[in-house]
Task: structure prediction
Amino acid sequence: MRKPEVWLRGPIPDIPFLLQPAAHALLQTLEEVPACLQDFPEERLWEGTAGRASVGFHLLHLTGVLDRLLTYADGKQLNEAQLEYLQSESKPHPDLSSESLVYRFEQKVSETLEIFKRSSEATLRQSRLVGRKKLPSTVLGLYFHAAEHSQRHLGQLLVTATVLKTRQAPSGE
Result:
């Protein structure tokens, strides 16, 4: 029997009340990513479809966006390595496997949940500036966006993976 979605399993221990929905969404994404990749042909990891990004992109982006939003929530701007990672997300990385990309995402979600555990309500209300344009947000807004953005890319990953799994390999492969 399939388990209920994460948000229907009760509170996540030690996560503040206001961050429960974000924690639930991140954990749901973490559970569903491997399911999307079940029987996915590794040779198609960097292949897009219908003008959309590849599964590899979404896996890289899931980790990268969490890292960037945590940086902004910490009151910092992105460093050179983060900017390089952002630029590299749209490029194929044949040296990376789906398994290694999922592992990186798992590690980043674990790090995020630890940060959530240390967050007070006063901290969540603090203003933050986002990006080069220094657009206004709050720590809570950044954490919420990290969770919903992960869910958005999970959906895109699911569709792309499903289409590529069912598509015939080009002749000659």
Q: What stands out?
A: Helices lie at 20-36, 55-73, 80-88, 98-117, 121-124, 139-166.
